[in-house]
Design goal:
91 residues, 3 helices, mainly alpha
Length: 91
């Protein structure tokens, strides 16, 4: 394993709860991760505005719902993140 991979693995091994100020960076992370996912065609059409549409979707999800629910975990470097939405949280 190279040094960069080892560093990222170490960062991901000690997650912290995300804060509201992390929402924008995490929205970029999730938009990049799901950019090619065909399920996302339901949320953001293919084309030049797809990335910004996905970023807006993930920002709203993170900032308005997921982070306030308290179960968004991320690495300190922002390269890894997991979201859990509790049952009954309205969309």
């Amino acid at each position: 394993m190279n040094e960069e991979a080892s560093s990222r693995l170490g960062a991901a091994a000690s997650p912290r709860r995300a804060k509201a100020e992390d929402a924008e960076a995490l929205a970029h992370l999730f938009a990049a991760a799901f950019l090619s996912d065909p399920i996302m065609d339901w949320i953001a059409r293919l084309g030049p505005k797809r990335t910004s549409g996905l970023e807006a979707f993930f920002f709203r999800l993170l900032y308005k719902q997921a982070i306030p629910a308290g179960e968004v975990w991320m690495s300190d470097d922002g390269a890894a993140c997991a979201i859990w939405l509790p049952p009954g949280l309205s969309a």
